[in-house]
Amino acid sequence: MGKNLGLYLHVPFCRSKCIYCDFYSLPQAEEQIDRYIEALCRHLEAAAARCEGYTVDTVYLGGGTPSYLGRERLETVLDAVHKFYHIAENAEVTLEANPDSTGDKKMIRALREAGVNRVSLGVQSADDRMLRLLGRPHSFAQAEGAVAGLRQGGIENISLDLIYGLPGQTMGHWQETLERTAALSPEHLSCYGLKVEEGTPLASMEAREAIPDGDAQADFYLWTVRRLEELGYGQYEISNFARPGRHSRHNMKYWTLGEYLGLGPGPTRTWGACASPGRGTWGPTAGAWRPGGSSRRPRRPSPGTSGVWST
Fold this sequence. Notes:
The protein has eight helices and 15 strands. It is of the alpha/beta class. The chain has one domain: pyruvate-formate lyase- activating enzyme (Alpha-Beta Horseshoe), CATH 3.80.30.20. The strands form four sheets. It has a nine-stranded mixed sheet with strand order 9-10-8-7-6-5-4-1-11, sandwiched between helices. A hairpin with a 2-residue loop joins strand 9 and strand 10. Helix 6 packs parallel to helix 7. The protein is globular. The C terminus is likely disordered.
């Protein structure tokens, strides 16, 4: 097992779609989830034959909102990963989550036992008024509670996502959000500048006019870099900051052109020296994932970009 491989699994389901999100996702599509999980597990099995000789050293469940699936479905997916792939003993296994679907302590403990050792939590703002505007299904108090619950459940590597440049946001507002979030002592912070994508609800809202301009967002960004350095977070990518030794090992595969396999309707994949599209759509009537369909935007970020990720 001389070569390492990352594994990205796209879970396109979520409770609700945020006004800025243009990723392929299916809000409130509960009736489709079980068939999708079955299809994803079949895809994991089929792709495993090509992974002989590889050790999977990072697994990333991205969304959508993977935590929306609940404990049993997530355990089914993780069981398939362990059944069909050789997983490194020290593998980094990341779950993207929202604060409103991360409050079940039994679920957290069960997922920790299933191998999850890193959680990326979509906080986005410490301002509840702003969270409501964005369509986020949680409050900042829920985010605080989710972090505490993750700690109690044995998760020692937590990443928190934030967005700056929100409608009507001032430097003071952003500074308060960053300070309150950093006070939760996460191992990793991702701070993204808001990008308005055409076709999203935000693009046609009056609130768009109140978004800070490019110069203001640059000021937010430069202050963020300085402040997080003071707090002990090293910047290792334009939007990502980590405590020593806590950078995202999986995301580093993207920046360094490492090998990874992406499964599901939204990701792309690199295999050996070649990159090939892995996009598709989940067909609710087909009962399986259909490769090659339109999924709007690939879920994997491109190196060096600062667009918003959605959880």
